[in-house]
Amino acid sequence: MLKEHHKQRKIYIYCDGGFGNRFNSLVTGLTISRIFNLDAVAVWPENNVCMATFDDLLDKELANLEVLSLEEFNKIESEIHLQPMIHESNGHLAAESVMLKNDLNQLYVELIKSDADILFSTNLIPPYLDLGLISTILDQIRFEKNIYEKVNSFLSQQETTQFFGLHMRKTDFGENPEHENGLRNLILQNPDKVFFVCSDSQLLEEELNKQDNVFCLPKNSYVEKLVDGEWRHNFKHHDGRNLRFNVNRTTESVKEAMLDLLVLSESEIIDTSHSTFLKTALLLRAKKRGLLKFGEHYGKHY
C-alpha cells in the first residue's frame, strides 16, 4: 500500500516597501519557516520605494533562499493555492495579519486551517518572536560583500571608533522642526562627543556635516519624489498602481543607504524615530554585540 504523499508547504515571503519593511518581512518569514518547517521563497518587487534587487543588497547563496521577482511570482501565482497572511502590502491592510496574533500558538492555529502554501507579508516584526531564534536567522542574512568592504573602508578613515548615531528621517516622514532642532542642539551642546549623522535629506546632511564633531558618509544619490506633489498623498502611478508614498529610491540610493545602515549599527544609536530603518540598525547592533538571547521576545526590547 502506497503511503499518502504530503506536499511540503511553502511560505512565499513578500518583501515590499522600503528596505526596513522588506528586512522585517524577510526576517519574520524566515523565522516562521524555521519554526513550522516551511520551505521559504522570497518575493522581491523592484518598484519606486526600492529599485534595488535582492542580489544588489543581500547574499542570496548564504540565505539558501529562492528569490522571485514580482513578474516571476505573478506568472505562477494563479497556479498555486495560497493562504494569505498579510500585515501590510503596498500600504493596504489585507487578509489575516500575523501582527494581530498574541503568540505562536495563535499563529499555529491560523496556519493549520489550510494545507495551502502561504503568502506572507509584514512590515513589522511580531513582538512575540524569540530574539535567540531571530539571531540564528540573521546569520543567514548577510549584505552583499562590496557593501561591507565600503563600510569597513569608511570606518577605518575615521579618527574614532566610538561615536553616537543619529538617523534623521525626513521626506515621507514629514517636517518636525521641534524634534529636528532638538537633535541639532544635542550635537551643538556636546562638542566633546562625536556624532555620525545619516539622513534621506542631502541638505540636512550637508548642514550638520559642517560641525567639527559630526561626520557623514558621502553619497551620490538621495531619494527623490516620484511625481510632483507632497511626499505622502494618494495618487495613481502610470503603471496602474495606487500609491501613497511619493518616493523614488533608485538602486544607487538604496545601496548607499545600506552603507548608512551598517555604519549606524556600529554606533551608540540615539532613538530618533519609529522608522523601520532605525529599528533594523538597532537589531543589527544587538546581533553584533551578542544581545539577542533565547527566551526573550522581540517586543520587550523593540
Polypeptide structure, described:
With 302 residues, the chain is α/β, with parallel strands linked by helices. It has two domains: 10-138, Rossmann fold, CATH 3.40.50; 145-270, Rossmann fold. It is built from twelve helices and eleven strands. The strands form three sheets. It has a five-stranded parallel beta sheet with strand order 3-2-1-5-4. Helix 1 (19-35) packs across helix 6 (131-138).
β-strand amount: 15-25%
> What overall geometry do the principal axes of the alpha carbons give?
globular
Count of separate DSSP helical elements: 12
Major beta-sheet overview:
5 strands, parallel
Helix residue percentage: 25-40%
Query: What is the string of helix and strand elements?
Result: EHEHHEHEHEHHEHEHEEEHEHH
The gyration radius over C-alpha positions equals 20 Å
CATH-scheme architecture of the largest domain: 3-Layer(aba) Sandwich
Average pLDDT figure: 90
- Trace the largest sheet across and list its strands: 3-2-1-5-4
Distance between the termini: 52 Å
Number of strands: 11
CATH class of the largest domain: Alpha Beta
Structural class: alpha/beta
